[in-house]
Amino acid sequence: xxxxxxxxxxxxxxxxxxxxxxxxxxxxxxxxxxxxxxxxxxxxxxxxxxxxxxxxxxxxxxxxxxxxxxxxxxxxxxxxxxxxxxxxxxxxxxxxxxxxxxxxxxxxxxxxxxxxxxxxxxxxxxxxxxxxxxxxxxxxxxxxxxxxxxxxxxxxxxxxxxxxxxxxxxxxxxxxxxxxxxxxxxxxxxxxxxxxxxxxxxxxxxxxxxxxxxxxxxxxxxxxxxxxxxxxxx
Length: 234
Description:
six-stranded parallel beta sheet, single chain, Rossmann fold, 6 strands, alpha/beta, 12 helices
């Protein structure tokens, strides 16, 4: 294939969040996993991801990874063969969400922040997925791995991110928006609205999934992603 897949994890996510996608596609496509730990701005994360690969790319971003993917499109539109945004949002941070994140930062600074708890995992997963104790444990363990310094840097990056609705409106390649049917953090409506303003796009709603579709419904996600990538290769 003449493009490289760039898997871009979510906030406090590691390669684990794309483990099933990597396993599925690693023999068919060149791929890289974006480094989301080394910087405290979406711009710098996108710059780093672009610098570490050459030629045409397909950014595949989940949640915060979607913000980075959109920044990459804005920075290097000529390199983008296709775009996949999952459980994400093209808008800048709302004032209410900024207040929530700053409150979390206050807990961090006073040593009272506990990381992703089981209650936090409940908000991220669908009702059925939350009953999968092994999955819940994997999600909580993954979110603890990057550490508190990365948590704080990524919070800053998310709070200060740019609005990319105009980036989508001017997109000159195919795009796929995927979202969990039960995503309460970035609900399906946000994705349908992104698709409406993006010229060559589709929106896929994944039944029985929440905010972490790649881990909750990997086979369904892989099937839709494979179809999208195959169409790019024609």
